[in-house]
Amino acid sequence: MTHHTSRLLTQDLTLGYGERRVVREVSVAIPDGAITVVVGPNACGKSTLLKGLARLVRPQGGTVLLDGEQIHRRPTKEVAKVLGLLPQNPIAPEGVVVADLVGRGRHPHQGVFTRWTAEDRAAVEEAMVLTDTYDLADRAVDELSGGQRQRVWIAMALAQGADLLLLDEPTTYLDVAHQVEMLDLLAELNTRRGTTIAMVLHDLNLSARYADHLVALHDGRIVAEGTPDEVVTEEVVRTVFGLDNRVVQDPVSHTPLVVPVGRHRPRRPVAPDPQADQATATSQENR
């Protein structure tokens, strides 16, 4: 397997809520400059792992390292300059307009009495141009469509200057065209800016298409990790999702494509409609 450098990694990380352990002794390195996708069934610990990486959940065991230091020992503002997080259901303050929300991404760079600088303005503008939200600057965030809103939140994370971006299900509530648009945007950010992206996705086939690195979780542990070709195999899909499947090649992206076997529904033959036949016969007689 290819060895990457990694600024963000975990060592024997255990996470949970109270007595309940959700992530168990996970050691994972997020490859720099790549797109990592965490996949697995519901309630397997995907979102909790992402929260642990973003230091929103304190480890019950093990550690999260950012640039070689324990992330929980570093000042919040310092971490926010390099690490941006888009949670699953981000909530915007009521009535806030797009430019103001994106501008909030600059808070980690400002002191208590610091004035808004030309650098802040440039960072906000660049983030809005990159995410195609510049024309929405004066619109209220709560008036936007789901896809537009997700792009605004990504713009806010980019305005932070964060070159590590963590996203928890960024395609939730989006129709399939907007899901692809969102993932294309993230892929472009990764290509153009070298942004390191780690995200949780539900759709295994889209994950295989967009990920450089895949991490498959089951019951809080890593079952498989590597390139989509290494991870998306019939055996792994069966183990992780309990799904009888066939893996074929995606004709567009040439990445693995999972086809569920499921129960075959025989196609019912269409029963002849005597009324329709009678109508056809009548119209032919009248010609």
From TrEMBL:
Polar residues: compositionally biased ranges: 277-287
Region (Disordered) location: 257-287
Location of the ABC transporter domain: 8-244
Gene3D superfamilies tied to this protein: P-loop containing nucleotide triphosphate hydrolases (3.40.50.300)
A Pfam family this chain is assigned to: ABC_tran
Record membrane topology: Peripheral membrane protein
Keywords linked to the UniProt accession: ATP-binding, Cell membrane, Ion transport, Iron, Iron transport, Membrane, Nucleotide-binding, Transport
Subcellular location(s) per record: Cell membrane
A single MF term (Gene Ontology): ATP binding
Domain of life: Bacteria
Record's keyword annotation contains Cell inner membrane: no
Xref: PANTHER family: IRON(3+)-HYDROXAMATE IMPORT ATP-BINDING PROTEIN FHUC
Name recorded for this polypeptide: ABC transporter ATP-binding protein
Organism the protein comes from: Nocardioides flavus (ex Wang et al. 2016)
Organism ancestry: Bacteria, Bacillati, Actinomycetota, Actinomycetes, Propionibacteriales
